[in-house]
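Narrative progress, year one. The postdoctoral researcher (J.K.) led the effort to move from monomer predictions toward full complexes, under supervision of the PI. The following entry was the first complex the group processed end to end, covering 926 residues in total.
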Amino acid sequence: MGAGKSQFTEEELQDYQDLTYFTKKEVLYAHQKFKALAPEKVGHNRNAKLPMSKILQYPELRVNPFGDRICKVFSSSQDGDCTFEDFLDMMSVFSDAAPKAVKAEHAFRIFDFDGDDMLGIGDLRQVVDRLTGSQRLNEGDMQQLIQYLLEEADLDDDGSLSFAEFEHIIEKSSDFSKTFRIHL
Amino acid sequence: MLKSKSISNINGNCEELFEMSEARPSSSHSQNGKINISSIDFTVDYKNNKQINNVKYKQNLHTKEKGTESEDSENSETANLIYTYKTLRLPKISPEAMEEQAVIIANSFERKNKLMQNNPLSELLRLEMIRNMPQGLTLKRSVKAKLTLSVSQKSKRRPISYWKKLKYQSSMVISKMKIIFHQIGSSMELWYHPIKTIEGHFGSGIATYFKFLRWLFIMNIIGCIFSILFVTLPQILVQSHLNVSFSSWDLLLGNGFFTNSIFYYGFYINNTLMIDSKVAYNMPSAYFSTFFFCYIISFILLCFKVARSYKKCYIETSGGAYNRYANKIFCSWDWGISSYKAASLRSASIYRELEELLWESKNISAPISCSMKMWTLLIRIAMTTLIFAIMCGTGVLLWLLLNEHQANESNVFSVLTVPVVFTTIINLFPPLISWSIKYERYAKDRIAFYITMIRVYLIAVIAVATLLTFWLTQGIQVGCWQTRLAQEIYRLIILDLFVSIFGIFLIQALRSSRPMRNTLGAPTFDIARNTLNLIYNQSLFWLVHYFSPPMSLVIIVKLLLTFYVKKCELLTYCEPPSKFWRAAQTQTLFLALTFLGMISAITVLSYIAINVDSHSCGPFAGKNYTWEIVVERIFNIRRDSTFWNVLDDIANPGTGIALLIIMCVAVFYLRAKAEASKQTVRILREMLIWQARDKEFLLKTFSKTSDKNWLRHRQASKSLADSDITDLALDHQQVNEPSTSY
């Protein structure tokens, strides 16, 4: 971690430690990982903005069906390109220490493809399609599935899931905080 | 133009509506601030527009202030503050907008007096708040800078009292310690990379096995340090072993050279060591207190772990099991996966599970005929009886073998018979039991799984119990039975290492060879069986640790070997599981079984300390019971003292029964309370639904009336020249007719 240390001042590290769920050491480690994605660029400017294609080379994001969504949600310019701070933010939310509520908030944004603050039928379909990968549910099954899902979770019967409804599901799920995490 | 006006109307309506909904259901909103806020979300999310978002934001602020004026507790405040920002999202953020947003958020923080004090406590609280905001890092930093600035401007420099200073200092020290511990913990996290690799390739289910192993490893290291430092080392200073020749068989059998060495209880001396003329070390007291603390520490650690897991998996999530579809869709992807193979398998398994779920829901199981039910029940009863019979048979067989082979110490095969049979039983039954469960036709996989686990556990319990009963009843005549019992368990631990670690490794290697793979399928990692094996080992260790302090070293080495062998087995031979493992739910079961192991070990040991003769050898030799020496030496209490008499009076069956009854009543009371809370939750949930529906209906009505008013206004002020608008107005009037009756 010696090489990474020279790129940050003590105050900056303290700042990162205060604002994320990481310790200083973990911040430096995260920077190492970030640097590994594009060694030259980050070597020049430690907060360089990397294009989404570079960020998606991170192993966990590479195989994740929502990889591009994750990048977009955390990117400060909204187009999927991430600076180191965006990357750190991402890893901090996915870390073990982040509370369930914060994770739920970001999961909601990741699943909200059209950005209308509701998980509508279109969003849900896309989530299921991405989850099942190469195999696709047939149209009838998909409709049925979405209908069952809404029956279960759509408390106000408006045909889509609001954040409150989504959070309700997440709060009651014992699996979520176990699976919604990426180790640095 | 038209659209924006109608939207602003709706905005206006929202506010009115908000007031109305606040005023009306007095019962629900007084119950819980959070439901209150989420119901506002329902209302306001009606149309998606940036303007509405702003209104919503203001409303949320509004509610926040309302909520926090009462200043109930810190927790509710925290929740309120967090919820404030939850639904605040700006679709495109330019730097100026970001600055604006930072100002808004900072302002809302500034209204909270508690957060804006210029003292370390409120600074910690402030940082916590900022950290929990779902916004980006850059924004957080700017909010933090603003707050720090305004705090330093606001604060008046005046001397603080001594007590306050002390309070702040102590809280700062505590929080700094926390951070330091976290830093140490994260930098020393054992086996971080291997576990991450495993998680990346096989998912978080298998990683929990390795994390459990790591946890046991660390706990045993603590026990090891204590027992070696305070018991074994002082003994080594006096004498470490007798002069007996060493043979390699001794390593396997744990006797011969080891019998009279620091390895076993029997060799520890029962008097005070004089290390030099001034330092005296009382061995019996040291022995007892060291182990007392070892067990207590392990017990407390385990208690916390079990309680946390239970809280996380059952209490906080109770009632969530009904969200079957939602859980499958939103929580089934394992975000820690990092290999393509694991990802595609995960996709396939999600696809299959969704299909299965749909199939189940479509074909709601046809009513099973009565005779069929009876038949299934009969099979289950027969199977359970059979398994119980087998368990009893195992016990009897072990008892006979134990009786037969104890006399002959010198013959290697005679000594090995019992451990070999024991280990065979422990390793042979689990596959049989999990195979036989298929015929019992349990409707749910989970129930079948739990039953299998409990049966497998029972077999182990019965085997170990037989062994213990033998030694505590028949074995006592043998002389130093503590050493002999420890030897017996040592053999079990060593044999288990060969069978279930190396043996399974070889079997998996064989299975992964091409011909076997084609017939039997690729080998997979059985989390349940491996975890049970860990629990079995750990329970044996807890039993024997008291009789053999250096055994902690053996168990540490064994866990180390287990980790690397299993990791190698997994990464070279096994395939990622095709069915994913519900780690969260089974984890509590496994922890509960571990806890049970711990409790039984402690019970047995305290029974031994109080009731079993210990005068023949070891640190407590010369006294009838271990407990006596402890009471006399450590507490300086004589047999005829008042304390002892009072203790005698208290320790009668009557007290036990009274305690039991009190506990039963308490449990019943808590259960009733929990049931009542469940009911309340159900009622509130229903109320929420109805409220949301009411609001939706009202909102529709409002928007219709407002449209009509607007049209009337237009009609009055303008001539009806424009035909388009006339059509529109007519349409609206037609549509609105039913609502006027309302």
